[in-house]
Write a structure and sequence with these properties.
The structure holds three protein chains of three kinds.
Chain A (H helix, E strand, L loop, with lengths): L1 H18 L1 E6 L3 H14 L4 E6 L2 H14 L6 E3 L3 H9 L3 E2 L13 E2 L4 E2 L2 E10 L18 H4 E4 L5 H14 L2 H9 L2 E3 L2 H9 L5 E5 H9 L4 E4 L5 E4 L3 E4 L5 H10 L3 H9 L3 E2 L16 E3 L5 H11 L4
Parallel strand pairs in A: 1-2, 1-3, 8-9, 8-10, 12-15
Antiparallel strand pairs in A: 3-13, 4-13, 5-6, 6-13, 7-10, 7-11, 7-12, 7-14
Helix pairs in contact in A: 2-11
Chain B lengths: L5 H4 L5 H8 L1 H10 L10 H31 L4 H9 L5 H14 L6 H37 L4 H8 L4 H17 L2 H7 L7 H10 L6 H21 L18 H27 L11 H6 L1 H28 L3 H16 L2 H12 L8 H20 L5 H10 L4 H29 L3 H6 L7 H10 L3 H20 L4
Helix pairs in contact in B: 2-16, 3-12, 3-17, 4-7, 4-9, 4-13, 5-13, 5-23, 6-7, 6-10, 6-13, 7-8, 7-9, 7-10, 9-12, 11-12, 12-16, 13-23, 15-18, 15-20, 15-22, 16-18, 18-20, 19-20, 22-23
Chain C lengths: L1 E9 L5 E9 L4 E5 L6 H9 L6 E6 L2 E2 L10 E4 L11 H8 L5 H10 L15 H14 L4 E5 L7 H18 L3 E5 L2 H7 L2 E6 L2 E6 L1 H6 L4 H6 L3 E6 L2 E6 L3 E17 L2 E7 L4 E5 L7 E6 L3 E4 L5 H6 L1
Parallel strand pairs in C: 3-8, 3-9, 6-7, 7-8
Antiparallel strand pairs in C: 1-2, 1-4, 4-5, 9-10, 11-12, 12-17, 13-14, 13-16, 14-15
Chain lengths: ~325, ~500, ~300
């Protein structure tokens, strides 16, 4: 019985290896990933793509445990935790792919191609238009009453995007920015989706959150609007990388480069994301030009100050 | 009473090595978390708070369930209304939390933080406690009737009623305490926005923390605390409950039946209202716009339904078979259950991490079998507990053996048939939980073989609240089907 | 047929069986008489293999079975609470335990115990007496070497009890079944036993023909086990006699205080020189009569087993 199982397993793995199998670990929305995988497989029918999709935390935890156990699985990593990718790159666990796609902004190929942005995700000010008539135009506008009392943001201990908000804004505007917001009544929610739902239902009037999620709610009829602040929307890195242990680096590279192709970029746009390639169309109902500032993740000291200020734990 | 034949062949304490083997995933975590254990000193407040909150929740739930059981027994509540009450328990706790949030929001009430968590826990777990307490309360009501006959009324009658219930209350309380202590869904939905932390949510925050040096170790250290806090309840052995015989019940009270029905409807409505509204109505335009089609149209929902159905069926089947196989050996069964209780209690994420650390180098890894194994470890305690019941079973088997039936044949023809109701209760308990399982599958599902839980979680993370609500209702429907098939 | 040698079983909480030696002959109905807690059910469970003894041996038909599991001892057991299987019909109870299930034979046995019309009913559809008949038929169905009966009639009402127990004795004799029967009811012991044994505090006190043990108990405990006892403690000695050992005429003077009639006999509470006693006597209240007591038993002064005194 046991021998039979092993044989079956071997047959299975051989069968899959012949076609070429890619394993992708990601925290992207599964519907979006599936659309991209579908488009990729239409061009590469011989390639199987296995997707493990979970929250960033689970994906990272799973990968950490696999690394400890000495048997990491994924060929491709794609999630919103740049620090962890940087940590992997530092250990030489990411494969460098030279950025040779014509027109691709090289600043998005970090470390000379260790990991890539394939579409752009911004932290913006989201507004419930039924609760707030006069909208703030910049981050600093949020300090004016009554805005802080209507405002919420996700918990930077759970959300990478919020950690970027905290790091970037405390560097640019000083930590006092958050102290004033706290004094004015800003609240903390667990995650971006929870926050967006509560914002859409009028529990809050304003939120610092990701742009694409708000756009997807707007498409369902939510009374929301995005404000890209004058002084710069925060560009949150959600990069993709090929691992050094991948047994199919060529296929993995092919998938990564496919994400930069016009077809994949169009798919991103359809789903509410900003494309990374300059020529691609922009998502519906969004400004054609966005002033973006590169996110800076909060360091542990800033985070613990923030936690102390809002009474959060990590 | 020693059992010749069985007891002799089992003089070697088999449950020790077996329990040790089963404890392996936990041992891995133990080793991993130990170095970080001293640093958990700063979390002492959360640890204490978890203890107090779980204890408080247990007391509230016991109180409610005791009243329900009295209403149910004295009002002769049968099938239908009971099923309605049980329905609430068969939904994942986080769906209860979400439904409650939306329902009360609709009514203009904001309930979060400690009161919210306690309310959701009480609503969610009272049916379980009711089910466990009901037979015992029936017996105690008989004693109450006897006391009344002898002229004892009021407080003096209660003295006949309550003390015999203390042992079962203690056992049921232990079960509840374990469930509440390990619950993640409710505090995540209702606690975090109010910065109310309990050990599972804090462990999860550690695991996710972008700035932690060793997230696995720090989360595992909190897992150790969970195991420590659980220890008293795990050690609490299943006391022999009152012998079940047909009790002398007081005359039927239609008023009680009415109150029972009212509670069942109200508790369900409190959860259902918000979910139904979310699933059926566009919250922004107010238009009638059922989200079921979209939910079922999600690419992975159908696959998830199929995979979860299969996994849950296989896991439930195997576990109940295991429970039956171990049932003739009470000592072995209880020894093993002590370990399995910890697996049931550990946040799924931690058990998942332990399994990855243990099994990633094996061929099992990355296949659906890993998730099956995780389900088996996680839910086994429930199967064993469910089958520990049945006071008349041992006697029936012995009666068979005295009349010449071999132990195997005696169990097959006599013991197991008598365990059928317990088997069914076990299936009812495990199948819906396994079907809608979220945390383990979020970490361990084989790429490409998603479960319904993964689909729900994915919908939630993607902001698809309406689809998630619709899925929650579908899960409830599955649970309702299971209840409808219940033998009367 | 069955021999017990120095059979001993002690429980941590007390009770049990202490050094019992006993031999029961082929075809004999042996009744163990004792109060509750005297150890008689423990003895049955030891014989059945439901308990393991601390010491001693059990031999069945010349074969040692002390360490055999219950299913290999070839017994039948009628439990106090019947111990029927709620999910099986009367007929299935029999078929399940027969070494070679034979429907005709099973139905014949059910007919013999008067249950032919109820063969397809389950326990909850049967009355108490019918359930006890099923239990008996089940115990006989496998043609046991030894039949164990543990207070089989105690849950039945008295009328049914009297009817059934004589029926059962007839049936056992008819089939030549060896039986070990346990009871606390002296009348039952007298009625059913070929030989009777008196148990108290885990010890077997006396064994003999019922009449012999009834008339010549070897100890106060043994005397008390048969009931209807009058006991007086006089000057370091115990005087004892049964209610029915009284005849009119004699040297003893008695004043009748109370008179009760009971199924064809009259019982009177009388004042004797030693104190009050209940005796079988035809007399009216207030009468002074002369009586004789035979036999009048004398035991050395000692504390009788309180359980015995209270329970019988």
């Amino acid at each position: 019985m046991k021998r039979l199982l092993i044989l079956a397993g071997m047959a299975l793995s051989v069968g899959l290896a012949q076609g070429g199998t890619l394993t992708l670990y990601t925290s992207e929305i599964l519907a979006d990933v599936n659309a991209l995988v579908g488009a990729f497989r239409a061009q590469n029918p011989e390639v199987q793509v296995q997707v493990f999709r979970s929250g960033t935390g689970e994906v990272v935890a799973k990968l950490r445990a696999e690394l400890e156990a000495g048997n990491p699985q994924p060929d491709l990593l794609w999630f919103a935790n740049e620090d962890f990718l940087r940590e992997l790159a530092g250990k030489g666990l990411l494969r460098r792919i030279p950025p040779t796609v014509p027109g691709y902004p090289v600043q998005f190929a970090h470390g000379g191609g260790l990991y890539y942005e394939v579409r752009l995700l911004y932290n913006v000010i989201a507004v419930n238009t039924q609760r707030v008539r006069e909208v703030p135009a910049s981050w600093r506008d949020l300090l004016k009453p009554p805005f802080p009392s209507l405002l919420a943001m996700p918990d930077p201990n759970f959300s990478g995007a919020a950690l970027a908000t905290l790091g970037t804004l405390s560097q640019r505007l000083g930590f006092g920015f958050f102290e004033t917001l706290r004094a004015g009544g800003m609240r903390i929610e667990q995650s971006n989706p929870v926050l967006q739902q509560k914002l859409a239902r009028g529990e809050y009037g304003l939120a610092i959150t990701t742009d694409f999620g708000v756009r997807q709610e707007v498409a369902k009829g939510a009374p929301l609007a995005t404000v890209y602040p004058r002084d710069g929307a925060i560009l949150v890195p959600t990069p993709i990388a090929v691992t050094s242990w991948s047994k199919n680096p060529e296929l993995a590279t092919r998938f990564l480069l496919f994400l930069l192709s016009p077809e994949a970029q169009r798919l991103f746009t359809e789903r509410g994301y900003y494309p990374v390639m300059p020529g691609a169309p922009k998502p519906k109902g969004s400004p054609p030009q966005v002033v973006g500032i590169r996110a800076r993740f909060a360091d542990p000291e800033t985070l613990s100050r923030f936690n102390a200020l809002f009474g959060l734990r990590r | 009473m020693t059992r010749p034949g069985f007891s002799r062949s089992l003089s070697f304490p088999w449950h020790l090595p077996l329990a040790l083997a089963l404890a392996f995933p936990f041992l891995v975590l133990f080793v991993r978390g130990l170095p970080h254990f001293p640093s958990t000193g700063r979390d002492l407040d959360v640890i204490l708070f978890s203890l107090v909150l779980a204890g408080l929740g247990t007391l509230l739930t016991l109180f409610l369930a005791l009243n329900l059981a009295v209403l149910g027994r004295a009002g002769r509540v049968a099938g239908g209304w009971e099923a309605l009450l049980l329905l609430g328990y068969l939904v994942p706790p986080f769906v209860t939390g979400m439904g409650l949030l939306f329902s009360l929001g609709t009514l203009g009430v904001r309930i979060q933080g400690v009161p919210g968590i306690l309310l959701a826990w009480t609503l969610h777990y009272a049916p379980l406690a009711y089910l466990l307490l009901k037979p015992q309360v029936g017996l105690a009501l008989g004693l109450l009737t006897t006391a009344r006959v002898h002229g004892a009324t009021g407080l003096r009658a209660l003295r006949a009623f309550l003390p015999p219930l203390f042992p079962p209350l203690l056992v049921v309380g232990g079960t509840l305490y374990l469930a509440l202590l390990g619950n993640f869904g409710v505090p995540a939905v209702l606690g975090l926005p109010e910065r109310v932390y309990v050990l599972p949510t804090l462990a999860y925050a550690r695991l996710l923390s972008p700035v932690a040096q060793d997230p696995l170790g720090e989360a595992a250290a909190l897992g150790l605390w969970l195991a420590l806090l659980a220890l008293p309840a795990v050690l609490l052995t299943q006391n022999p409950l009152l012998e079940a015989k047909e009790p002398l019940l007081p005359p039927s009270r239609p008023l009680y039946r009415l109150l029972f029905a009212l509670y069942s409807v109200a508790a369900l409505a409190l959860v259902l209202l918000g979910l139904l509204r979310e699933a059926l109505q566009n919250p922004y335009t107010g238009r009638w716009d059922p989200a079921f089609a979209q939910a079922l149209g999600l690419p992975l929902v159908q696959k998830g339904l199929r995979n979860s159905l299969l996994l849950a069926l296989v896991a439930t089947g195997l576990l109940l078979l295991l429970g039956l196989a171990l049932r003739p050996f009470p000592r072995l069964s209880k020894g093993i259950r002590g370990v399995l209780d910890i697996h049931y209690l550990l946040p799924g994420t931690l058990l998942g991490v332990g399994l990855i650390l243990l099994l990633a180098p094996t061929p099992l890894y990355g296949t659906p079998w890993l998730l099956l194994l995780a389900y088996l470890l996680h839910f086994a305690a429930l199967a064993l507990r469910a089958l520990e019941g049945g006071p008349g079973v041992e006697g029936a088997v012995l009666a068979g053996r005295v009349h010449g039936l071999s132990p195997g044949r005696a169990w097959w023809r006599l013991g197991y048939p008598l365990l059928l109701p317990y088997l069914y209760a076990g299936a009812l308990l495990i199948f819906p939980l396994a079907f809608a399982e979220i945390t383990l599958s979020a970490l361990l599902y084989a790429p490409g073989a998603e479960t319904v839980g993964v689909a729900v979680l994915s919908a939630l993370n993607g902001g698809l609240y309406r689809e998630a609500s619709a899925l929650g209702l579908i899960l409830m429907g599955v649970a309702a089907l299971a209840l409808l098939g219940r033998p009367r | 047929m069955i021999r017990l040698e120095d059979l001993t079983k002690r429980f941590p909480q007390g009770g049990g069986v202490e050094g019992v030696d006993l031999e029961i002959l082929e075809g004999e109905v042996f009744v163990l008489l004792g109060a509750s807690g005297s150890g008689k059910t423990t003895l049955l469970n030891l014989v059945a293999g439901l308990l393991a003894p601390d010491r001693g041996r059990i031999l069945l038909a010349g074969r040692e079975v002390t360490h055999l599991p219950p299913e290999r001892r070839e017994l039948g057991y009628v439990f106090q609470d019947q111990g029927l299987w709620p999910h099986l019909t009367a007929l299935d109870h029999l078929l399940l335990v027969m070494p070679r299930p034979d429907r005709r034979e099973a139905l014949a046995l059910l007919e013999r115990v008067g249950l032919l019309d109820h063969s397809h009913k389950r326990p909850h559809q049967l009355s108490g007496g019918q359930r006890q008949r099923v239990a008996l038929a089940r115990a006989l169905a496998r043609r046991p070497r030894l039949l164990l009966l543990d207070e089989p009639y105690s849950a039945l009402d008295p009328v049914l009890r009297e009817e059934l127990r004589l029926e059962v004795r007839t049936l056992l004799k008819e089939r030549g079944t060896t039986a070990l029967h346990v009871t606390h009811d002296p009348e039952e012991a007298m009625l059913l036993a070929d030989r009777v044994g008196v148990m108290s505090q885990g010890r077997l006190l006396q064994v003999g023909a019922p009449k012999e043990v009834y008339l010549r108990p070897n100890s106060l405990e043994s005397f008390l086990a048969f009931g209807r006892a009058n006991v007086f403690h006089i000057e370091g000695e115990v005087l004892a006699f049964r209610q029915e050992w009284v005849r009119p005429g004699g040297s003893l003077e008695a004043l009748v205080l109370e008179r009760r009639e009971l199924r064809g006999e009259v019982l009177c509470r009388v004042q004797l020189e030693w104190g009050e006693a209940w005796v079988r006597l035809e007399a009216g209240v207030g009468e002074r009569v002369r009586i004789q007591i035979h036999p009048l038993l004398r035991f050395p002064q000692g504390l009788p087993d309180p359980a015995m005194a209270a329970g019988v």
